[in-house]
Amino acid sequence: MTEQATKNPVIISTDPGIDDAVAIAIATSDEALDVKLISPISGNVSLEKTTLNTQKLLTFFHKPIRIVPGSHKPLLRPAKDASGVHGKTGMDGYPFPEITTKVDDSVTAATAMHEIVSTSDQPVTLMGIGPLTDIALFIHQYPDDLANIKEVVLMGGSLGRGNFGVLSEFNFATDPEAAKIVFTSGLTIRVAPMEIGRQAKIMPTTSEKIKTLGRVGDMFYKLFSKYRGGSFKKGLNMYDALAVALVLKPELFEQVKTHVEIETTGRYTAGASLIDLKGYLDMPDNATVAVNVDTDKFEKWFVEEIGKTMS
Predict the structure, then answer these.
(1) Residues 6 or more apart from 5 whose CB is under 8 A from it?
(2) How far apart, in whole angstroms, are the C-alpha atoms of residue 18 and residue 174?
(3) Domain named Inosine/uridine-preferring nucleoside hydrolase: which ranges (predicted)?
């Protein structure tokens, strides 16, 4: 078996966003993963901006990975954004080089996912680090492909209170109908909820280490200085990198099999993820959820992975 064949094929649905940028950098540089497709989606900022940011990143990292833009809005709801956290462009703070990567807009994101999954000789991992609209559309439109999905790995949902609504987290609550489709698909799902991102802070001393890692470190340090996911002085929340860590370093997490239910009809709670750790719903397990992370080991892994992006 060739080295390429041993890599885990991955499709990433993302809305960069600064923490998405870190996740993309790690996923596209680690030798264990073979990122086949990146589909930007409206989320942290508009689809136009997330697509442009994906192009900027792949140009910067010299990664010739296929980019197929996804949905410009949720399935049923108006678009929301998080530009207050990520800045007006989604990746403010760094002068990226002139873009050389191209965008393939000849097909939809769901169709591009189908093309890859249906022809892959290995089961494919779907990684959702933004709203789940395009993954849901893929699941709905191409049910025969699901047998060749290894797992769906997500950053989203919350164990308790939210950052979008009282009980809802941004990625899931932006398109709760899509999240519900994913969690009722029968696929193997692993989730890193919002609280784990708040545990896995990148502290100022770590940011200073990253700053020393050449042009890559300089780029991330400057992006971090504009990021409002936490505090540059008190620690930044690296939410989306957790999904990559779940694939590459699952031993960093305490994980629990449970049932996750997505609320879609509540007047005040639509988008809430009911992660049923105590079995109140009496429903079968449909996901494995990270409930803790070893923060010291995560921080060490994080710096090592950023260092790999220099090669």
Answers:
(1) 121, 122
(2) 18
(3) 10-299
Cα separation of 308 and 7, whole Å? 16
pTM here is 0.94
The full set of domains in the chain, from first to last, is 4-308 (3.90.245.10)
Whether the CA torsion 186, 269, 47, 108 is positive or negative: it is positive
Handedness of CA 34, 37, 38, 39 (dihedral sign): negative
| Contacts of 14 by beta carbon, 8 Å cutoff, 6+ apart | 20, 23, 24, 38, 39, 40, 41, 50, 54, 127, 129, 130, 240
H helical segments located in 1-100:
18-29, 47-60, 83-86
Residue 148, CB-side half-sphere exposure with 13 Å CA sphere: 19
Angstrom distance (rounded) from CA 138 to CA 143? 8
SS (H, E, C) 200-215: CEECHHHHHHHHCCHH
